[in-house]
Amino acid sequence: MLIAFYSIYGVSTLWAIFSILLYGNRPARSIGWLLIVIIFPILGVVFYILFGVNRKKFKFFTLNFNAKRKLYDLNHKSKNIEKFTYKFNTDKFGRIGKLLQRSSGFPVVQGNSIQLLKDGALTFDEIFEAFSKAEKFIHIQYYILEEGELLDKLISLFTEKIKKGVEIRILYDALGSNGWKNSAVKKLENLGAKTHSILPFKIGTILSTLNYRNHRKIAIIDGVVAFTGGVNVSDKYIKANSNLGIWDDLHLKVEGPAVDHLHRIFIKDYYFASNEVLLTNDFYLPFQKEKGTSLIQIVAGGPDLKYLSILHQYLMMIHTAEKSIYIQNPYFIPNKALLEALKMAVLSGVDVKIIVPKNNDSILAKHSMFANFEDLLEAGIKICVLKTTFSHCKLIIIDDEIASIGSGNFDYRSFEYNYEVNTLIYDKNITKNLSNDFRKSLENCMVLDYNSFKNRPLTTKLLEGCAKVFSPLL
Predict the structure, then answer these.
(1) Among this protein's residues, is 217 annotated catalytic?
(2) 222 given a catalytic annotation
(3) What ranges do the domains of the chain cover?
(4) Listed range (218-222, 228-232, 275-279, 313-317) with the worst mean pLDDT
(5) Pick the catalytic residue: 261, 394, 411, 468?
């Protein structure tokens, strides 16, 4: 028995080490996985197989996982949006817009109306009111659909809309929404709603899908109203169900041409999850009218894309900043490129402030975040820790001129493994509003002092170091 164990351990460890060395695309990440594989017998190899294997290098993964998505991109491009595309006069914004169009696929579009939604209860009031006005269809996708008051209200509302002939389509992530009971799914399906799990856990595909999650939050009503941002369908946003209290987040109500782009992201994901006929006729993608004056660029990110568009977005925004960079994110675990970009910015005179929560829903993420702070503080970046509320916001503001709100975190997972969507807002009035809120949040923060933080207990530093080793899993 012991000989068999050592044989399995030896073969599996050698295979994992060979794979890491052959296919690893980042030295620091490769070192982290090597340590995990060596330190944790068998378990480390299992973690690597589930979360670390670079499956893009393997033919079966490319064919089964991404082929449909890439084929969709080739055959179904947006045509009715061309009159709304916008070209900047300034090189500053023009470079960002051009990069993200080539990296993510969507151009900057004008004529949009944006409503900032900052309170959980008010956010869902707006969403449910829009659902109640639907006449043709409601399409939603969320990373988390969680049992509770909000989900019960959603099911009740959808039940009424289905009776009136409104089409309901629901996408949810298999991992994030694993607490959603089958009874609720069956009830909606029996009524006529079409529900599909994204990247479900199936024998034969679990190894190629488990590490790739759909983290997007999108709701589309009749093809003319959209909601997107960081809010999931969870009572955490309206009730204090844990020591984290009521979660704080940002969401957007969008009307205008950008709705077309958000809807196309949903349609692509729906096609991938359902194998159903594409929803690309005028009924689902009506011609968009101008609804406001805001410029918007939708940034889609995912492992099916050639480029790391969420990473490109954040890096380009940081490099473009001339006066200030404000970041608010609950999982601030940037890679080496982002860390250096932020240090370069502050050393060149840009005011860089980062807000993170004191407590977190992930202990590993919290310690992994704090592991990077000493270098950032030494360079002059202000790290501001919220004293009470848990902020789930994914916000970055540059020079009080452009802002991004969405699902993308500052971590490896959002850059490489998750399907994400951010909304980049080129609107000074809205951005100024967000900047004022950011500065107001600073009043509820403790600003870390470099000398004090440097002298934190050795046990804390060890915890952070261990968490940093596991950062590839986050």
Answers:
(1) yes
(2) yes
(3) 2-53, 111-292, 309-473
(4) 275-279
(5) 394
